[in-house]
Structure formats: structure tokens, C-alpha cells
Design brief:
The complex is a heterodimer of chains A (710) and B (376).
Chain A: H1 2-25, H2 38-41, H3 51-58, E1 63-67, H4 68-72, H5 79-83, E2 89-93, E3 101-105, E4 113-117, E5 120-122, E6 140-147, E7 164-170, E8 179-187, E9 191-201, E10 206-217, E11 221-226, E12 235-240, E13 245-259, E14 262-277, E15 292-308, E16 313-330, E17 340-360, E18 363-380, H6 383-388, E19 393-406, E20 410-424, E21 434-445, E22 452-464, H7 468-472, E23 484-497, E24 506-518, E25 521-525, E26 532-536, E27 540-556, E28 559-574, E29 593-602, E30 607-615, E31 618-619, E32 629-630, E33 633-645, E34 674-682, E35 690-692, E36 695-696, E37 701-709
Parallel strand pairs in A: 4-7
Antiparallel strand pairs in A: 1-6, 2-3, 4-5, 6-7, 8-9, 8-37, 9-10, 10-13, 11-12, 13-14, 14-15, 15-16, 16-17, 17-18, 18-19, 19-20, 20-21, 21-22, 22-23, 23-24, 24-27, 25-26, 27-28, 28-29, 29-30, 30-33, 31-32, 33-34, 34-37, 35-36
Chain B: H1 3-32, E1 55-60, E2 70-75, E3 80-82, H2 85-90, E4 98-104, E5 107-112, E6 117-122, E7 128-133, E8 144-150, E9 153-158, E10 162-167, E11 172-178, E12 183-189, E13 192-197, E14 209-214, E15 219-225, E16 230-235, E17 240-245, E18 255-260, E19 265-269, E20 277-281, E21 284-291, E22 296-303, E23 309-310, E24 324-329, E25 336-340, E26 347-353, E27 359-368, E28 370-375
Classes of the chains: A mainly beta (710), B mainly beta (376).
Chain lengths: 710, 376
């Protein structure tokens, strides 16, 4: 016991030392939040259709990126809508604007995808998975999905600590001129969604931005409920109820370019949402089925400081404080109190220091050290439950040593991450301390200088920690859990060129991979059928392929066409126990094949776009029997947008990055308000489908948006 | 061209050809979109020889909120099986979380909890005769759990604390009364109804009473205190009611208790009997216990006339069960049927043991969480 407290005190001490030490020194360095590191590994390249695609093609581990321009072509309202277009990503969507949406990459499970907002990971210690439906696309400049990890070695250690990273990058007001932007969206499900973005360059070194958004939808939509075991035949027409949502997001940022070698920013983010949880649709009991509600409030404030001391040394510091409160209520639960009430509060303090050293031209090494302190408290409808709650605290120390070598035909990176975790609880048993080492290696080989062809490979061995729910959830948790480990092997290529000589420029990436998940944490009933508990049971073998292609055609006379598509194949088999009935069955909710497509046609009058996601059949449980099969589906959408009104030559630069303004007007004209009108039609063919069984998705629906920039 | 140049030239050609064909193959894959995943066929379903009964009806809960409760039929006379017999006959699903089944006259009564109904079917054909909704004033399911029959009426206890009376001729709910919290068992003894109030949804604050209900005035006569979390209850031929309490799944053990229904007084706990569930046949309790944390199960019998408790268990051939989930005995043949829920997420089995405790046969993959077997 004494030793434990000593460890704890040591942990706090180290945390404080790292925090105060870095604050005291107040270091600095250049802008580093982007996924592109051309400055670091610039190889003579032909520039393809768009700056970001270059990043995707050069990356040694698969990287997918959607820029704000591309995002507008997807009819996407939330981040989750856009992530569906990434190959290898399966979004578990419970339907509706307010429905939970989590992303699993390459069948590893949602807890293995870290979600990063402006380069700092947004964590949820309670469930280990983040609802990516809560992130709006309103203020997003780019969305990237990394398998493995980024080639950028100069970043916080936590960025090295997951099997995949989804990064959401918001607009940087320093990169564009002062902007004022208001928009209003409305549409099906009673959607009302006003938002504004305001950024101002205070001087050449300082820019500030503030953005806010409010969204409300009653969330009701019609669906067909089929009664036959085959999912066809007789149906009743039902309405999805208790799926209303109301949320508010406010963000502010201050960006500074303190000197030529020094940048810093400070950001604050607040989000609150209140939503109904419609639950599964239950046969013969759809009326008033659910009385559950979820209210959540999230606040974080974070800082970043980056300084290039000289040609050899750079340092960056990142810090974050995050507080999340989640209140779940069921006002018609059949217990003694007649209701269920759970109120969870999580806090996390995060501090990270990274150093980059350029050993010789082409070779750089980095060291990053992160310290994280997380806690959770809870209250319930029943005092005894409240008293029994564990009140866990987790101290995590991440240290990573990484190296990168670049020359004109090779890019190689490697890293070794050390993770140490100490946990403490107020009641019950705390999980034991853990220490793990996680290796990573990747390379890209460009065999020919005159051919834009690259081969790439990566290997990563990483794990996810058991969540607070896994470990301590009232009577369900199991403090003896081991982390769930994943190993990934990837082999792929990327190519850009003009096949057959006459076709337009096309860029292609193709990757084959094999993943293993060990010690998978799953729920089994260990008390009775009502009380399930978590155990390390399960091994999954995943073999798959991801392909993406993009091409653009300049058609002349102001016409241009961009088409892109992805395809994924995933063979994700349960190999836990050769004697079990699910041995070598595809794991639940994982399609064997899935894909997406998007096309944008620019005309002198309007911008037209088409987008589609499709999925093959899936099974709702681990048994691949006909009765558990969910049919495949496709969800297609179209949109038209048109810009009206003035032009502003001085905004030529920011129109490249700042979203839904397709036309860059000629320079030199007078600035005046510009309007963009956009109409979207989603689920064009009114397909009735479900991603999660008995959670119907909305049928055909529309959205209208008007925005003004002035 | 020098040698190095030539080598480079050919190497370039090779790599182009290889990557070209690789990309073509990938593109072909993309176009054909080969979904090579096909439905797997459940194992089992073959009928064993030498069965002494003619029909087995097996009700499976399914998984919560997956609407996959099933009623299976294993017909030894016609040698046919149907794991989703109800669905096949009626062209629709049974619903969500079917929890109990009873036979009365020529009809099967299926209690479907989350769907909030009693499905009345013809026993021979499986055809649905009536869907009796058990909903509260707002249309929400009362979460019916168990059914018992008495003098032309069916009585269903529900988690919302009510007991409903159903006229078996009109198949309509005639009256509703209240019991305790989250009733999870109902039995008939001496022209009275006994309901076990589990309070299971108020964990850790369980109920611990048995409600005695007068079927004539349809009101609660009294509450008899037992231990926490009572569950299965059944009366023997001499009016002795046996009740299982499940405790808190922690420091309180499962325990068997006796109530004398002639006086409606609590008699006491049966020493050494710690079942999770039981069935009563020929004035003998056939019991099983299951420790969820260790996965250990135990089988016992208790003779209500002699008070003899067999601790060695009634399975004599060493057959092991993964997760016993339900038990039934056919009094005529003496066969004992135990359902095995396996991992709770996949299809489970039904095991038939002979009178002398030997495994006669195992029906594999009968349904997800098989709960109740009716033998005809």
C-alpha cells in the first residue's frame, strides 16, 4: 500500500515537473499541425491535382484525406457522414442526426481509432470510443484518417499510441485573410442549423477566430418495419420517435506567429447536446418504446507552442484540459425509483513535450514525452450505487523515440513507444500498473525518379487500454483485464500517371493488409443474464485490401470533373476457439466488401456533386447464419450549389482552404458579400436500410443551406 | 545504351508490368466487388433415434433488442424439425425476449417480454390464434415474464409489478392487479396465485417477498417474506410451495425455501439446497445451480416427501454443460431436459437425460438462449 502511494506521488510529481518545466521555459517553433511535412521530406515531385493528394500518395502508411472542398461534395453534415467515405472505415451508425456513431478501422474495433482534433487527441476514458457524430464539419479544413501512424515523427507521443488516428483539422485564421461567414441550414427532420465563423488578423503575427453553431432537429422520420424473418414482405409504416437532438458548439482560437521560427496557438471548445435515445425498434412495441435521454457537455482548452531553435533542433509543447459530463436518464424504468439516472464526469489533464533533432540532412530523430491524468466520478439514482462507484483515476506516461530517414527514393520511419499506466480507485480494486513497449516501422520506396510509383509497408504493434467501463462499471467491470492488443502488417503501392497515354491524370493507392487482435475485451454474463461482465476473450484475424482512386478532367470552357472512389475488402474472422460455433465466422457488423464514390462537376453556373457509400451484407451477431444477416445497401446523394453575388480578389488565397466557395474570382475586383446556396438530396433512392440491426436509417431527405461571406 | 542503363530500362519495364497488372487485378476486383461471404448453415437439427416423446417445443429468448426470439419444433413422429417454427408457420417473427411458455388445452401460450404480449398459438399447427397485448396506459410493454393457469384463466406476471388475468376462451385480458416489484415467477397452489417479487431491476435494492393473490377478488392477500431476489416457485401435490431466491449474486447465495400454502406461512430454508432454478415433477425438485463467475454448474434433486437431498446430482454419465439455462421433466417418461445457453450470444442446445441420468441425445443449435422446453 505504501509503495502504491509512493508511486502515485511520484506520478503526480513527474506530471507537475513536466508541466511547470515546459511552461516556465515557454519555448516555441513553426506551425506543425498539418499532416503535410513537405518541408521535412521534400522530394522532387510533380504536383498532382491537389496539394493534399500528394500527401496521401507519399505516406508510408495508408493516409486518406478529405479537404474542405471535397467535404462539401459529400452532402456531409457531421464528421461521421464524411468518414464513411474512407476505405477500410466502418461507421457504426445508429441512425438519425442524434444517433451514436463510432468508427472502426480495418475491423479492429472502435476503441482502436483515436480521434484527434487539431493534433491533440480527444479521449474518452469511460468508453474508449468517441461519438464522431458530435463533430460538425462547419469549421473543418481537412479530415484525415491514418492507418498505423503518420510519417510525421515530430508530434505528441499519444499520436503514436493507437492503431488508427482520425484527425479533424479546423481552419487556421493565420493562413487566410480576415473572414466573416454566416450560414443557415434547414431540411428534413425539422433541422435548423445556424452557424457563424469570424476570424480576424489582428496584425501580421496574430489572428483570432471564433465560431459558433446551434443545431436542432426533432429527428422524427418514417421507416418500414418488416415482420417476416427474412426482412421482407409485410410491413407497418412507423415513425422513429424520441430521436430529437439539440446541440450547441462554441469555439475560439488565438493563433500567433511569434517570429519566423516560432508559432503558438490557444483554443477553447465547448459543446453541449441533449438528445433522445430512440433505442432499437421492437416488434409489436414501437409505441413509446424509449424514454431514454442523454445530455452531454464537453469543454476543452488547449495550447500549442512550437519553436525551431536552429537548423538542427525544434521543440514543441502541447497541453490540454478536458472535462466531459454525461447524464443518462430513463424516466420510465421499472425499478423501485421508477427511473434510471447516471451522471458521469470525466476530467483529463494532458501535457506533452516533443523534441526534433535533425542528425544529418535526411535523418531526423524525435523524442516525445506525454503525461496524462484522467479521472471519472459518477452519481446514480440509487445512493448505494453511488457509494459503490470506483471513482477511478488513471495516470499515463507515454514516451516515444522515433526516427525518420528520407532520401530521393526512400522514406523510412520507426518508433518505439513506452506506455506506463498507474490506476487508483476510491472503492473496490484498482487495475494493476502496466508497462508496455510498442514498436512501429514503415517505409516507402520510390524505385524510379521519372515514374510516380511508390511501394510502401508498415508494421505496428499496439494496444488499447481497458476503459473505465470495462474495469470499473458497477458490478460489470473486471479490474483484472489485460489490454487488447493489435498487430498490423500493411503492404501497398501508390501510383500517379496517365494510363494508356491519353487518359487524364489518375492517382491510385492500393494496400493489402493483415491484422491480428488478441485479448479482445468482450462482454459475457458473469453474474446473471442481466449483469454482463468484461473478459479478455477473443482473437480476430483480419485480411483485407483497401483501394482508392481519384482523377480529374479539365473539360474546357469552365467545366471540370473530379471523380474518386474507394473499395474495401475485409475478411475479419473470429479465431478464438476452434470448438466454438462462431469459429472462422466474420465478426459482427463487418461487411466483407464496401466502398464509396464521389464526383464533382464544376460548370460556369453551378457546382454539381454526387456521392455514394455502399456496403455488402453483414451479420448482426458472431454467427453467420441467414437469420442474422443484414442486407447490403447503398446510400446515394446529390447536391447542387451556386455562388451568387460579389467577388473579392483579396480573398483569393483563403478560398483555397476555406470551404464551400468553389470559384476563385479574379483578382482586383471590389469586395462585396458573396452568397452560396446549396441544395442536397440524400438517400436519393429512398433505400430502407439499417447499419445496426433494428436501428433504421432515414429514407430520402433533403437539406438546404445558405451562407454568406462578407 | 550502357549496361546499367539497359538494366534500369528493363527493370522499369518489369515493375511497370507488375504494378500495371496488380492495379488491373485490383480494378477487376473492384468492379466485380466480390462478396465471397456466404451464410453458414447451423449444425445439428438431425433428430436422434429412440426418443420416447413425440414432440418437443423449445422457446428461445434470443438476444435483447434483436427481435430474435424463436419457437422451435422437433417432431419425432413426422421426423421434422423447424428452429423458427413460429416464423415459418405465421410469416412473422415472434418478437423480442420470449421468456416463458405454457400449454393449456390445445393451445400454447408464449410470453414475449420486451414486445409486451402473449402470443396464443394452436399447439398442433403452430398457427397464431391471438396476440394479446400487455401494455400500460402509455403503450409501453409491461414486460410480461411468466404464466400460470387456473380454472379457465391464464395469469401472467409482469416486470411492471402487475398480474394480468386472461380468459382462455375469449383470449382477452379481463382484469389486472398489482403484486410487488419486478415479479419473475408465478405459480398456482390451493386455488391461489403465488408471485415472486424479485426487484431485479432495482439492483442492489432487491425485493424479497412472495405475493399471495386471490384469483376470485383478484387482489393481493398477503406478502410472505423470503430472501432477496426470489425467482422460480412451484408447489407440490401437498400444497408445499418451493421458492428459489437468487440473492445478490455476490455474498448472498442462491437458496431454496419452503412455504406452506395452507397457512401461507414461511416454513424455512432447505439446508444444502442452493439451486438457481428447478422444475417440480412427481413431488421431486430437479434443480441446477450455476456460478456465473466460475462457470461451474451443479445438479441436485430434492424429494419433497422424504426430504432427501441428493448432492451427487442426477447426471450419472459425466456429461458437462456449459451454461444450464432451463430445466423441464416429462413426468410420463421421466426424461429430464436441460437447455444450455452456451456463450449466451450464439445458438444453444437442449440435452435430454434419461430417468437414470444418462444423456440420451443433444439437440444442437436450437435457438439463441433456449429457455423453456415443453414435451408432449
Amino acid at each position: 500500500m505504501f509503495a502504491f502511494y509512493m508511486n502515485l506521488r511520484l506520478a503526480i510529481l513527474v506530471f507537475l515537473m513536466v508541466t511547470t518545466g515546459s511552461l516556465a521555459r515557454a519555448i516555441d517553433a513553426p506551425g506543425n499541425e498539418g499532416p503535410d511535412t513537405t518541408r521535412v521530406y521534400s522530394i522532387g515531385e510533380i504536383t498532382i491535382t491537389e496539394q493534399y493528394r500528394t500527401t496521401e500518395l507519399r505516406s508510408s502508411s495508408p493516409l486518406q484525406l478529405l479537404s474542405s472542398k471535397q467535404l462539401t461534395q459529400l452532402n456531409a453534415l457531421q464528421v461521421s457522414d464524411a468518414v464513411k467515405f474512407f476505405s477500410g472505415a466502418v461507421v457504426k451508425d445508429y441512425g438519425g442526426i442524434g444517433g451514436l456513431k463510432t468508427v472502426s478501422v480495418r475491423s479492429l474495433g472502435a476503441s482502436h481509432t483515436a480521434v484527434s482534433y487539431d493534433g491533440i487527441i480527444v479521449n474518452d476514458n469511460q468508453t474508449g470510443q468517441l461519438d464522431i457524430g458530435r463533430f460538425s464539419l462547419d469549421n473543418v479544413e481537412a479530415l484525415t484518417l491514418h492507418n498505423g501512424q503518420s510519417d510525421q515523427i515530430f508530434q505528441p507521443a499519444r499520436q503514436f499510441g493507437s492503431a488508427a488516428v482520425l484527425n479533424i483539422r479546423s481552419r487556421n485564421p493565420l493562413e487566410s485573410a480576415s473572414t466573416r461567414h454566416v450560414s443557415f441550414r434547414t431540411g428534413s427532420f425539422g433541422l435548423l442549423n445556424p452557424s457563424f465563423f469570424y476570424s480576424k488578423k489582428l496584425n501580421s503575427r496574430l489572428a483570432a477566430s471564433i465560431s459558433a453553431e446551434w443545431l436542432r432537429a426533432h429527428g422524427r422520420y418514417p421507416y418500414k418495419l418488416y415482420y417476416h424473418p427474412s426482412g421482407t414482405g409485410d410491413f407497418t409504416s412507423e415513425t422513429r420517435t424520441n430521436s430529437d437532438v439539440e446541440n450547441l458548439r462554441v469555439e475560439g482560437a488565438l493563433h500567433a506567429r511569434l517570429s519566423l521560427h516560432e508559432t503558438a496557438w490557444l483554443k477553447a471548445y465547448y459543446y453541449q447536446a441533449s438528445r433522445g435515445l430512440p433505442g432499437a425498434t421492437i416488434l409489436y412495441a414501437t409505441e413509446n418504446f424509449s424514454t431514454q435521454r442523454l445530455n452531454d457537455r464537453t469543454f476543452f482548452v488547449r495550447g500549442h507552442y512550437n519553436r525551431e531553435f536552429n537548423r538542427l533542433w525544434s521543440v514543441q509543447w502541447n497541453a490540454n484540459y478536458h472535462r466531459g459530463n454525461l447524464v443518462y436518464t430513463d424516466t420510465a424504468y421499472l425499478n423501485a425509483e421508477g427511473r434510471q439516472y447516471s451522471n458521469y464526469t470525466q476530467q483529463e489533464a494532458y501535457n506533452s513535450l516533443s523534441v526534433l533533432y535533425r542528425v544529418v540532412p535526411g535523418l531526423s530523430v524525435s523524442f516525445s514525452s506525454d503525461a496524462i491524468a484522467g479521472s471519472m466520478s459518477a452519481g446514480f439514482e440509487n445512493d448505494r450505487l453511488t457509494q459503490e462507484f470506483a471513482h477511478p483515476r488513471r495516470f499515463t506516461f507515454l514516451n516515444v523515440l522515433a526516427a525518420k530517414y528520407v532520401n530521393e527514393w526512400l522514406l523510412a520511419t520507426g518508433s518505439l513507444l513506452s506506455t506506463s499506466v498507474i490506476e487508483q480507485v476510491r472503492t473496490g480494486t484498482a487495475a494493476g500498473g502496466r508497462h508496455r513497449l510498442s514498436p512501429y516501422a514503415s517505409m516507402t520506396w520510390k524505385p524510379f525518379t521519372d515514374e510516380d510509383l511508390r511501394f510502401r509497408a508498415f508494421y505496428k504493434h499496439i494496444f488499447r487500454l481497458p476503459t473505465f467501463n470495462d474495469l470499473y462499471y458497477s458490478r460489470i467491470g473486471n479490474a483484472g483485464l489485460r489490454p487488447e492488443t493489435t498487430r498490423q502488417w500493411n503492404l501497398g503501392l501508390s501510383w500517379t500517371g496517365t494510363p494508356l497515354g491519353w487518359l487524364p491524370l489518375i492517382s491510385i493507392t492500393a494496400d493489402g493488409y493483415h491484422n491480428r487482435v488478441r485479448d479482445k475485451i468482450i462482454a459475457v454474463p458473469t453474474k446473471n443474464i442481466f449483469v454482463w461482465s468484461m473478459v479478455n476473450l477473443g482473437e480476430v484475424a483480419i485480411t483485407g485490401a483497401d483501394i482508392s482512386a481519384e482523377s480529374s478532367f479539365a473539360l474546357g470552357n469552365g467545366f471540370a470533373l473530379v471523380v474518386a472512389g474507394t473499395y474495401s475488402y475485409q475478411r475479419a474472422l473470429d479465431i478464438t476457439d476452434a470448438g466454438s460455433g462462431t469459429y472462422r465466422h466474420q465478426i459482427a457488423y463487418t461487411p466483407r466488401v464496401s466502398g464509396s464514390a464521389r464526383a464533382g462537376l464544376t460548370t460556369p453556373w453551378a457546382e454539381l456533386s454526387y456521392s455514394a457509400v455502399w456496403s455488402g451484407k453483414r451479420y448482426a451477431t458472431g454467427e453467420n447464419f441467414a437469420e442474422n444477416r443484414l442486407p447490403g445497401y447503398s446510400d446515394q446523394g446529390i447536391s447542387v450549389s451556386r455562388e451568387i453575388g460579389g467577388t473579392a480578389g483579396r480573398r483569393k488565397k483563403d478560398s483555397d482552404v476555406a470551404g464551400p466557395y468553389p470559384h476563385t474570382p479574379e483578382a482586383g475586383k471590389e469586395a462585396s458579400p458573396r452568397f452560396l446556396i446549396r441544395a442536397e438530396l440524400n438517400n436519393l433512392f429512398n433505400e430502407q436500410y439499417a447499419v445496426v440491426r433494428w436501428y433504421p436509417m432515414p429514407g430520402r431527405n433533403y437539406r438546404l443551406a445558405v451562407s454568406m461571406r462578407f | 545504351m550502357n549496361n546499367t542503363g539497359r538494366l534500369r530500362y528493363w527493370l522499369l519495364k518489369c515493375v511497370r508490368a507488375v504494378s500495371g497488372s496488380y492495379l488491373t487485378a485490383m480494378a477487376l476486383l473492384m468492379v466485380t466487388a466480390c462478396d465471397d461471404m456466404t451464410d453458414k448453415v447451423p449444425v445439428g437439427n438431425e433428430l436422434p433415434d429412440g426418443a420416447t416423446s413425440s414432440r418437443l417445443y423449445i422457446l428461445s429468448e434470443g438476444l435483447i433488442h434483436l427481435n430474435n426470439s424463436t419457437l422451435a419444433l422437433y417432431d419425432f413422429d413426422t421426423r421434422t424439425t423447424a428452429t423458427d417454427w413460429f416464423g415459418a408457420v405465421n410469416g412473422r417473427r415472434l418478437g423480442d425476449t420470449a421468456n416463458d411458455m405454457g400449454v393449456y388445452g390445445s393451445k400454447l401460450y408464449l410470453v414475449v417480454s420486451t414486445s409486451g404480449l402473449v402470443e396464443v398459438t394452436d399447439k398442433l399447427s403452430g398457427r397464431s390464434l391471438k396476440q394479446i397485448p400487455l401494455k400500460d396506459g402509455t403503450g409501453r410493454s409491461r414486460e410480461p415474464r411468466h404464466i400460470a393457469f387456473l380454472e379457465g384463466f391464464a395469469y401472467v406476471c409482469s416486470f411492471d409489478g402487475t398480474v394480468a388475468e386472461i380468459d382462455t376462451t375469449t383470449l382477452a385480458v379481463t382484469r389486472t392487479t398489482r403484486a410487488g416489484r419486478n415479479p419473475d415467477g408465478i405459480a398456482v397452489a390451493g386455488h391461489k396465485l403465488y408471485v415472486s417479487n424479485s426487484g431485479g431491476l432495482s439492483f442492489p435494492n432487491y425485493d424479497s417477498t412472495i405475493s399471495v393473490i386471490d384469483p376470485v377478488h383478484f387482489n393481493e392477500l398477503k406478502k410472505i417474506k423470503v430472501d432477496a431476489n426470489p425467482f422460480t416457485l412451484q408447489a407440490d401435490s401437498r400444497g408445499q410451495l418451493y421458492v428459489v431466491t437468487r440473492g445478490n449474486y455476490g455474498n448472498e447465495r442462491y437458496q431454496l425455501h419452503r412455504i406452506d400454502t395452507r397457512t401461507d406461512e414461511y416454513v424455512g430454508a432447505i439446508e444444502g439446497a442452493h439451486p438457481l432454478n428447478f422444475t417440480l415433477s412427481n413431488d421431486t425438485l430437479w434443480m441446477y445451480s450455476f456460478d456465473h463467475s466460475t462457470g461451474q454448474s451443479e445438479f441436485q434433486t430434492y424429494d419433497t416427501r422424504t426430504g432427501a437431498l441428493s448432492t451427487s446430482g442426477f447426471i450419472t454419465d459425466g456429461t458437462r454443460l456449459h451454461t444450464p439455462f432451463g430445466i423441464t421433466r416429462h413426468t410420463g417418461t421421466g426424461d429430464v431436459y436441460v437447455t444450455d445457453a452456451g456463450s449466451y450470444t450464439t445458438r444453444g442446445d437442449v440435452l435430454c437425460f434419461s430417468r437414470n441420468g444418462k444423456l440420451k441425445y443433444r439437440l444442437k443449435g436450437v435457438g439463441v438462449n433456449p429457455k423453456k422446453v415443453v414435451v408432449e
